[in-house]
Design brief:
With 316 residues, the protein is an alpha/beta fold. It folds into 2 domains: 163 residues, 3-Layer(aba) Sandwich (D-Maltodextrin-Binding Protein, domain 2), CATH 3.40.190; 115 residues, D-Maltodextrin-Binding Protein, domain 2 (3-Layer(aba) Sandwich), CATH 3.40.190. Strands 1, 2, 3, 4, 5, 6, 7, 8 and 9 form a 9-stranded mixed sheet that branches. The longest helix is centred in the last third of the chain and has 22 residues.
């Protein structure tokens, strides 16, 4: 009997490996919970095009929007766990659960993290309304008056970034919500607001023209584009956050398929096309395994839940 059990187990393992090696054998869809044209959708389309060419298989993007990106995410979570539905989501996927109690699924349990696509650092940019020339001076200025910090919307990564900075420095800060990053940075340029936490691509033109000034980077290292701009950590401020995009599949998807998908995405991002894409986005690619990505994802979920509770963040 023991020999039979071992034999059956070996058959199941070999069958699973064979299925992963053959995957995909039919069209794959990539769910983008964002409207066409945004950075999340651009990431989804790059992955779909790249994997489609690599596999010689049809890979299409399906935009399922609404609910602050959670309708599309929920749709992907409830799809068949066979690797033929892939979700592309980003930083806010670990933030919105801290603010929403009405989600019909649990991002930490109902979806399996597969692979990172890109990771972009945020830069703190200020306009003419701010006198400070350094991050240290800005922190002091923010303790004497209320800083108006714009966001690309309530519950977004820029919103959480503002609150993270306020909590770490003790600055007086009020988040002012806009419908997108372009509107948010324009009011900083005009002097109607003080601060916007932006990706370099969003603020590049304004930075190049000198209409806004970079005070600090919110990532682990300085940016190649701005080597003289320090990180917040260098100034003793613990407030790290960036804009990342990644892939997920339904939680019950076999590990062998998730591992193959991870390897193929990492291979794509390391290709000349992937390197060129990352350069244009001024981003990097963490080539993590699914296990490493899962550890990061769970840590981020816990981190933003604590920030939301400490700072009293709401969707209003």
């Amino acid at each position: 009997m023991k020999k039979i059990v071992i034999t059956l187990a070996a058959i199941l393992v070999s069958t699973g490996l064979a299925a992963a090696q053959e995957y995909p054998t039919k069209p794959v869809r990539v769910v983008s919970p964002y409207a066409p044209g945004g950075s999340g959708d651009i990431s989804a389309r790059f992955i779909a095009d790249g994997l489609g060419q690599m596999w010689g298989q049809s890979v299409t993007v399906e935009n399922i929007t609404g609910g602050g990106s959670m309708i599309g995410a929920g749709h992907a979570a409830q799809a068949a766990p066979d690797g033929y539905t892939i979700l592309v989501h980003g930083t806010t996927f670990t933030m919105l659960p801290a603010l929403r109690t009405d989600l019909p699924f649990d991002p930490g349990k109902d979806l399996k993290p597969v692979a990172m696509i890109s990771d972009t650092q945020f830069v703190l940019v200020v306009g003419p309304s701010v006198k400070a020339k350094t991050i240290a001076e800005f922190v002091e200025e923010g303790k004497t008056r209320e800083i108006l910090a714009t966001t690309s919307g309530p519950g977004t990564s820029t919103h959480f970034a503002n609150e993270l900075i306020a909590g770490a420095t003790g600055m007086k800060m009020k988040s002012v919500h806009y419908k997108g990053g372009s509107e948010a940075v324009i009011d900083v340029v005009a002097g109607r607001a003080d601060l916007y936490v932006a990706t370099v691509t969003t603020a590049q033109a304004f930075l190049d023209s000198g209409q806004v000034r970079p005070l600090a980077v919110m990532g682990r290292s300085r940016l190649e584009a701005f080597p003289d701009v320090p990180t917040l950590a260098e100034s003793g401020i613990d407030a790290e956050v960036g804009l990342w995009w990644a892939t997920f599949v339904p939680a019950a998807t076999p590990d062998d398929i998730a591992t193959k998908l991870n390897a193929d995405i990492n291979k794509l991002m390391a290709s000349p096309e992937g390197i060129d894409y990352l350069k244009k986005q001024q981003a990097t690619h963490p080539d993590w395994t699914p296990v490493q990505f899962k550890e990061f994802f769970d840590t981020e979920l816990a981190k933003w839940k604590k920030v939301a509770e400490t700072q009293g963040i709401t969707l209003n």
